[in-house]
Every structure is written in C-alpha cells, then in structure tokens.
Design a protein that fits this description.
This protein is of the alpha+beta class. It is about 30% helix and about 20% strand.
Length: about 260
C-alpha cells in the first residue's frame, strides 16, 4: 500500500475463477464465473461494513461509488453518492441499466472524504451481482448500446480511421460489437457497421416497395425519395435549429446543408 494513499479504493471482481493455479498439477478444477451467462445483470448489492472512521458531514461519512462499464472502463454504468453513519453496517442496492455481460472483469471504485479511508476500511464488506432473465434485460442493453454507438459515431464522420490505435474509434467499435453480439439482427446497428467498415460487408437485405398500378416505377421512386428528404429537412429544423438560425455545424457546414433545400422546396 502507498505511504500516503488517496482516499479511493478500487475493487476488481474477476469474470471467472475457473482456471487451475499455474505451475501446479491439474488435480482439481472448478468453475465460478459469468462467462457465457445467458441472463442479464440487473444490479449490484454492496454490503458496506461498519466503518471505523470519523464523520465529516453532519455526523455522516460520505461515499462515492462508481461501477465501470466492463467494455469501456472510462464510462460509468452508475455514479452514486451516499452517506452512512460511523460504526453502522448498511446494504446498498445499485439498480443499474441491465447488461448482458462480456467475459470482462467488473471494476468498482469507492471514494470517501473521511480521513483514514483505505482498502482496510472495507474489510468484511461483500459485493453481490444480481441477474435477471435475458429477455427482460435485452431492452435496456440494446437501447443503451445503440445510443452509445450513435453518440460516439457523431465524433467520427466523413473520412475516418478504422485503426483501434485511435481510442475514439476503439470505443465506437467496442460499443457496436457489443450491440451486435447481443442482437446480431439489429438493422440500424448493421447499417452503422456497414458504413463504418466502408461497405465491406454489404447492407442488410432490403425489398424495394412496389409502385401502384399505373404509376411509372421511376416516378414512384422519385416521389418516395423526396418524402424522405422532406422528413430529413423537417427533422433538422424541428430538432436541431436554434433561435438564431444555426444548425450546429458552423458557417461552412450549415451552408453546405441548407444550400440543397431551395431547389427541393
């Protein structure tokens, strides 16, 4: 332990403890893990031991607890601050957004303003992972991963790298890979991946709508195309334009966007 440690304790829960000890005969084996688990993580229960520390705020000890995203530890799945009384055990239930876990370890960080707080302060504490049926967990997992893909991809547009040496690309790659791991038929996810991978794998199957009887196919498709363009323009005006008139891309990108509109109008 450092001579003057910061008041932060990192708890690492390995995803599995099934491997036999190194450099020893293979005389025993066991398995305890969430690797390949079918169900989804519902939340984490933390049994906080009685803290033998001085109170710092109104007779209480403040704690900050963060649970990191296993596929991207710089992202918190939950960040919560609580307070406990000195010498009093408490159980904290952290109801996370549901996750279908990968075979990565779970990282929990606990910080406190109480003088003397360190790893020994948490001796006797326990962490329990609570799982739920996979079908119930899929909704939040898929929705969150897709939103993360869209958010992160917004910072990588036009000509972009496909090298994971660039951490921003590595992040969107991890989010999208995890989305398609859990929901390989996610249509928008597959379209994003097709675009990100420079169309190297092809788009999902698409059936062209049929033209009504008596309507030329070229005219029908042109009309349908213009309907989508109108939706695109209306969305930008209703959701992105500010009162001053800007769309968020600066003078250059904003003018590139709207110069297409007069002719369409």
């Amino acid at each position: 332990m450092p001579a003057d440690p910061l008041p932060i304790v990192h708890v690492l829960i390995p995803s599995g403890v099934g491997d036999a000890p190194a450099a020893q005969p293979l005389i025993r084996s066991w398995a305890h893990s969430w690797e390949n688990m079918h169900d989804g993580l519902d939340g984490v229960a933390i049994d906080i031991p009685a803290l033998d520390l001085p109170a710092t705020h109104d007779g209480l000890i403040p704690l900050n607890i963060r649970i990191k995203d296993p596929i991207w530890p710089a992202r918190d799945m939950i960040d919560v601050s609580v307070s406990v009384k000195p010498g009093q055990k408490r159980t904290l239930w952290l109801d996370l957004r549901d996750r279908i876990l990968t075979a990565d370890s779970l990282w929990i960080s606990v910080a406190s303003a109480a003088p003397g707080f360190n790893a020994a302060s948490l001796d006797g504490g326990e962490v329990r992972l609570v799982f739920k049926d996979r079908k119930q967990a899929l909704g939040e997992h898929v929705a969150d991963r897709f939103n993360q893909v869209r958010d992160n991809w917004g910072f990588l547009v036009e000509e972009h790298t496909t090298s994971k040496r660039q951490r921003l690309y590595a992040r969107v790659y991890a989010d999208l890979s995890d989305l398609l791991r859990v929901d390989p038929d996610h249509e928008l996810g597959r379209l994003y991946w097709n675009y990100i991978s420079y169309n190297s794998q092809g788009k999902p199957p698409f059936a062209q709508p049929a033209a009504p009887k008596g309507v030329p196919l070229w005219a029908f498709r042109q009309t349908e195309d213009l309907k989508y363009v109108r939706r695109f323009i209306d969305w930008w005006i209703e959701n992105r334009q500010v009162a001053y008139g800007d769309f968020g891309g600066g003078l250059s990108d904003d003018s590139d966007l709207v110069q297409q509109w007069p002719g369409l109008a």
